[in-house]
Design brief:
Distance between the termini: 16 Å
Oligomer: single chain
Structural class: mainly beta
Helix content: under 10%
Largest sheet: 7 strands, mixed
Number of helices: 1
Order of helices and strands: EEEEEEEEEEEEEH
Low-confidence stretches: none
Shape: globular
Strand content: 35-45%
């Protein structure tokens, strides 16, 4: 993993000055965050978008209306990647405790379990996502939807990793061998 790669800030990261992702990069940093459950105290019952740190738990994060996020719930993490060179890529999303889905440019490309609005509707399936996709270059939008109700690990505990497909195959093999 290239630890000198740009760091996401405010839910966005640019690779314009970095070039092709010939070494995998972690998407560790500030992600966009949208709470997906009703909040009676919020205008219109919906919390405004905010930023949270990945890796990290959402529990206790201060919201834009001054309340704290609870330990259980449902949320969408977002990352806009700008100036990504064209190519075949792989996104690795580590196991997340909860039902979760991964979206790229608005399309759901992977699902583990079922995210829900309460414990009864949520199904857990603890496994990583390895998503391959092609891009013609430019901007890429990643979304990770998750819901957690049956434990205290809400959020994304390990950052996702992104890179061109060939270097990611090598990284994934080493990563799995180390676990």
């Amino acid at each position: 993993v290239d630890h000198n790669a740009p760091v996401p800030k405010g839910g966005t990261v640019s690779y314009k000055a970095y070039g092709p992702l010939e070494r995998p990069v972690t998407l560790q940093g500030d992600w966009g965050f949208q709470w997906l459950l009703p909040v009676p105290e919020a205008p219109g019952g919906k919390l405004p978008r905010m930023n949270v740190r990945v890796p990290g738990l959402w529990e206790g994060e201060e919201t834009p209306i001054g309340t704290k996020l609870p330990p259980q719930g449902r949320a969408l993490y977002t990352m806009k990647i700008t100036d990504l060179p064209a190519g075949r890529y792989q996104l690795y999303v580590p196991p997340i405790y909860g039902g979760n889905r991964v979206y790229i440019d608005g399309r759901m490309l992977s699902q583990r379990g079922v995210p829900g609005n309460d414990a009864a509707a949520t199904r857990y399936f603890l496994r990583a996502h390895e998503i391959r996709f092609e891009t013609t270059g430019g901007d890429l939008n990643i979304g990770i939807e998750t819901s957690a109700y049956l434990h205290r690990d809400s959020g994304i505990g390990t950052p996702p990793v992104l890179g061109l497909a060939a270097p990611m195959e090598f990284w994934t093999a080493i990563h799995w061998a180390q676990e």
